[in-house]
Amino acid sequence: GGLLFALFLFGWGLSMLWGPVGDRFGRVKTLMLTILCYSVFTFAGAIATSVWQLALFRLLAGVGIGGEWTLGGTFVAEEWPESRRKMGAGLMQTGYYFGILMAALLNATIGAAFGWRVMFAIGGLPAFLVLLINKGVHEPSRWKPPESARRAMAMLFSPEYRRRTLLNAIYLLVSIAGLWAGTVYVPSGAAFLASKAGANALEATRMGSYATVLVAVTTILGCVALPPLAERFGRRWTLAAYFLLMFVAIAYGFGYAYYLESNALGWFLASLAVLGFGGANFTMYSLWLPEQYRTECRASAFGFATSAGRFLGAGVTLLVGWAVGRMQTIGTPVAFTSLAFLVGIFLLPWGVETKGQELPD
What is the CATH number of domain 2-136+150-350? Predict the structure, then answer.
């Protein structure tokens, strides 16, 4: 499981290539390609005949889903009116977690009855959205194609943008290393504690799905809350608060509650609620990144920042998986990933504050 997830993250890292394509050929056209890429290779997982085939399909699906976020975030920022743009970023981000919520519910019902292949087959359904997008969605009026995709990417490392580009990639790495290395173990952690409390195998499996639902629901709440908080307190302070929630939730939940002799499951689930809310820190990037770059390189910047850290994030996921196997426990290795958020808090003062500024042309 850890290896497949790491390959999925590696594929997501490769998705940075979609950014320059979106700058050069359009947001909507490229978005449709990313949806097809994700859907087709997710569906292909249902017919995989070996673990290595499945690994390849997960890697290619990661390439697609990373591009979806890049182009979707850029499109919403450029198409929505300025007065509603910030909340639009939050609402867009909830879609990802509604998907996780739906997947968890389907896994607890259809998946439990018919197996994992059916779940991968269901994952191919978003391909039909391309028909609706092609018919009714048009390019933002702001978008004008640059001279070349290479020029758009080169702008990210110009003297004007170099520091913010590197810092944004580091902030995303913090989010990825901490949250994804942690949440990948949420179902198994909850299932283990349920078994420890006396649940049978089926009940424990369902508890793992319920824990995922809990994280998804509280993350949706965090997504909706983030835009007004960012407008009130600024982008950096708000992201720092969400990072702090992540540090506390992961350190307490996996480092302490997981090892309690009594009521461990209850306290672990309580920490997951906080983890879910703090996990909405990804919403900040959908709001903040487009504000830092001009239209001609905005998708390239979004794609680089949200994808570059996935390579190291994949390494962290493998490292945590190795430590779990070595230590024969989930708790302590995952708890150590919380330290990444302290690094992020330390670096945030050097980020670009864009509170009160309109989206640049």
Answer: 1.20.1250.20
DSSP 358: P
Determine contact, residues 301/167, Cβ cutoff 8 Å. no
* Residue given tokens 């390609």 in the structure block: 33
Q: Which residues of 73-91 are buried (b: 16+ CB within 10 A; e: fewer)?
A: bbbbbbbbeeeebbbbbbb
Helices 51-79/27-44 angle, 10° precision: 160
Look up residue 359 and give its two tokens: 């989206």
Of 101, 102, 100, 80, give the one whose Cα is nearest residue 91: 80
From residue 62, alpha-carbon distances to 14, 171, 326 in Å are 8, 20, 28
Helices 18-25 + 298-327 axis angle, to 10:
160
What SS3 class is residue 127? helix
Per domain, the residue ranges of the chain are 2-136+150-350
Please give the Cα distance from 221 to 239 (Å, whole number).
Answer: 15
pTM, two decimal places: 0.89
Tell which residue, 355, 207, 341, has the closest CA to residue 278.
341
CA–CA separation, 349 and 320 (whole Å) = 29
Q: Determine phi and psi for 329, rounding to 5 degrees.
A: -160, 150
In terms of Cβ atoms closer than 10 Å to its own Cβ (0-12, 13-18, 19+), residue 320 is buried
Determine the pLDDT at residue 1. Answer: 57
The structure tokens listed for 136 are 């009714």
pLDDT digits (tens, 9 = 90+) for 344-361: 999 999 999 999 999 987
What DSSP letter does each residue of 194-230 carry, written as one string? Answer: HHHTT--HHHHHHHHHHHHHHHHHHHHHHHHHHHHHH
In Å, how far are 89, 93, 102, 116, 259 from 96, measured between CA atoms?
12, 6, 10, 20, 31
Mean residue pLDDT of the chain comes to 89
